[in-house]
Amino acid sequence: MQLSIYTKNPHARAISHLLAKNPSTVYERKVKGHSVRFAYHKMTDDELYASIFVTPDSLALVKDNEAYDITHYINDREFAVSTIFLSLIRSALGTALNGKPKEEYIQYAAMDFPFTFEFGPISSSLSDEEIRGLWEPLGYDVTIDTMVDTRRARFLTLFNTISLKKALQQIFIIIPVMDDYKHYYIDEAERERLENYGVGWLETHPMREFIYKKALRFKQLLLNEENEQKVDKPSLNTRRYETIARTVTALKPKTVIDMGAGEGKLSMLLAQIDTITKLYSVDPSNHALAKMEKRFADQQFATTPIIKWGSLYYEDQEFAGADVFVLCEVIEHIDEERLPQIMQLITQNYMPQHLIITTPNAEYNTVYELKLMRHDDHRFEWDRKQFEAWCKAVAPNYDLHFEGIGTIHEQYGAPTQMCIMTRRDSHAI
């Protein structure tokens, strides 16, 4: 993760004071387990080139921050410029962001200078045209370089004559708009700070509403609230969990893995199945694991769930040979190009007798009157043909059975689609 700043003008040394970093030393700090460094590549009277970059601790990304969820442990957070990256570097750039250097340099905080900013890679589902639409109205010349191996990851170079304070504040608001991943938790102080970053430019930006909906979600604009009500109705969640539980019951398993168990709502039902002797409730979020512990406390179960930290990117031999492996609303949070690796781990290493996968049916979004995907943190949503084709491709040694969950629409099917995969040396469904 890296953000570079370059300028060539007679006040370059004054700008180093706006950054509040000594050109003769490398700034290095540990933030939440990650290494944050700021270094100057070049510093003369009329030229400044500096970079701030993060060397992440992958385990800290998933274990130390209770707000990170399934999206963060199975994707490329340790490599990409993202809201997580911004949260880690904010303190290092605090003086520049707030425009409050030492008194003798305050005049420079409001002055415009010719700056070039480079950052990336950033994983974004936005088109190049949409990305330009975010930056060009603010006066930036935009160069976009796309990584060869992925359609989403881009490097951006921005040029503008602007104050350092305003440029950094714009970067801190617009990167979350581009970032595909779910945002970290934002408290009240953070909300006010980010709102202040938009003063003087955000209200006149032609994509203002889009920016609020994507980045400043704490605003709780009407569209987001309506979407949440439409797609997160307890009745659909309940029907999904009950359908999975009935399916698992019919399979008469002894060992079950509930991967991405969240707060444990599905595991609560699975724990009532009397044939199960071992039930793993697995999640990468410590916050979710803590909620599971509270949910399961003092409950009477046929089998008490084993609460366990786990990741689809780290093999755990305890999961090998399970009778049933469940991925309930998990795959849509993963980049499509990463799914084959995960499915190989499950079908070839763990080799469960049965694998149950549920995911949204993209066709049904028309019923919800949604033009985009159901949630901001979904990497994709498939229609029924796409889901069926993918299942056949990634599980050649399994027989497949497809069902819909939820209210059936004559044209668009059900809101949730489910595939039950049965290994060919198992008893077929």
UniProtKB/TrEMBL annotation:
Gene3D superfamilies named among the record's database cross-references: Hen1, N-terminal domain, Vaccinia Virus protein VP39
SUPFAM superfamilies: S-adenosyl-L-methionine-dependent methyltransferases
Cofactor: Mg(2+)
Enzyme class: transferase
Keywords associated with the record: Magnesium, Metal-binding, Methyltransferase, RNA-binding, RNA-mediated gene silencing, S-adenosyl-L-methionine, Transferase
GO BP, sorted A to Z: regulatory ncRNA-mediated gene silencing; RNA methylation
EC number(s) given by UniProt: 2.1.1.386
NAD keyword on record: no
Reactions the enzyme catalyzes: small RNA 3'-end nucleotide + S-adenosyl-L-methionine = small RNA 3'-end 2'-O-methylnucleotide + S-adenosyl-L-homocysteine + H(+)
Stretches assigned to the Hen1 N-terminal domain: 1-224
GO molecular function: metal ion binding; RNA binding; small RNA 2'-O-methyltransferase activity
InterPro entries reported for this sequence: Hen1, Hen1_N, Hen1_N_sf, SAM-dependent_MTases_sf
Record-linked Pfam families: Hen1_L, Methyltransf_23
Family statement: Belongs to the methyltransferase superfamily. HEN1 family.
PANTHER family linked: HEN1, SMALL RNA 2'-O-METHYLTRANSFERASE
Protein name: Small RNA 2'-O-methyltransferase
